[in-house]
Amino acid sequence: MRILAGLDYLLRRISHLGFLVASTLLLFVGVMGAADVVSTNLLLRPIPGMVELSGALLAVIVFLGLAEAQAQGSNIIIDVATQHLGPTSKRLAAIFSLAIGTIFMALIAFKATKLAGTAWQFNETALGALAFPVAPFKSVACFGAWLSVAEFARQLAYRLAGIEIPGDRDHD
Fold first, then answer.
1. Cβ distance 73 to 168 under 8 Å?
2. What is the pTM of this model?
3. Which candidate in 2, 31, 89, 126 could, as Cys together with 52 as Cys, close a disulfide (CB 3.0–4.6 Å)?
4. Please, which pLDDT band fits residue 172 given cuts at 50, 70 and 90?
5. Domain annotation covers residue 169
6. How far is CA 166 from the centre of its chain?
7. 12 SS3 class
8. Residue 64, in any domain of the structure
9. Do the Cβ atoms of 92 and 129 come closer than 8 Å?
């Protein structure tokens, strides 16, 4: 049990770190996007490669932030169908949705792994004014996807065991 608690703690710390990195990258994309707009409109010269870099970073931001959003319950929840269910039915619905989420994220992570591997294999670069390697971006996005799989699986394991998920706001 002590090992599981340690793994749980480690996953939560890595997930939080991913969120902090995603937040920092989002700030960077926002500032650079604004600088690009100002540069384009005032100086009539866009920042080379900004569109391509922003696109690559947005994928990284989404996948790095997804695990923490799931852990905090900050993702979108449509509870019209479950708001009138009893505790047992809510638990079964949560197990079902977490199982589907885990499978879905695992498929995405698996495909992201293949894409990152191919990008490294062929030294893929961005098409545009500034050719930069995209394999590191795909690799970090892939890491974020697997981190999300781990978070979904963590929550599923807690629900299956009937244990309250630490930090869960709507656990019955």
1. yes
2. 0.87
3. 126
4. very low
5. no
6. 20
7. helix
8. yes
9. no
Q: Is residue 171 part of a domain?
A: no
Number of folded domains that form the chain: 1
CA-atom Rg of the chain in angstroms? 19
CA distance 29 to 55: 9
The residue segments making up the domain with residue 138 are: 2-161
124: tokens are 């893929």
Q: What are 138-143's contacts with CB under 8 Å, separation 24+?
A: 138/59, 138/112, 140/60, 140/63, 140/64, 141/59, 141/60, 141/62, 141/63, 141/64, 141/112, 141/116, 142/63, 142/109, 142/112, 142/113, 142/115, 142/116, 143/18, 143/63, 143/64
Cα–Cα distance measured from residue 15 to residue 150, given in angstroms and rounded to the nearest whole number: 10
What whole-number distance in Å separates Cα of residue 139 and Cα of residue 126? 15
Asked if residue 85 belongs to a domain, the reply is: yes
Beta-carbon neighbour count of residue 6 at 10 Å? Answer: 10
- pLDDT tens for 97-136 read 999 999 999 999 999 999 999 999 999 998 888 889 999 9
- For 18, 37, 97, 128, 131, the CA distances from 152, given in Å and listed in that order, are 15, 38, 10, 36, 36
Question: Rounded to whole angstroms, how far apart are CA atoms 53 and 103?
Answer: 30
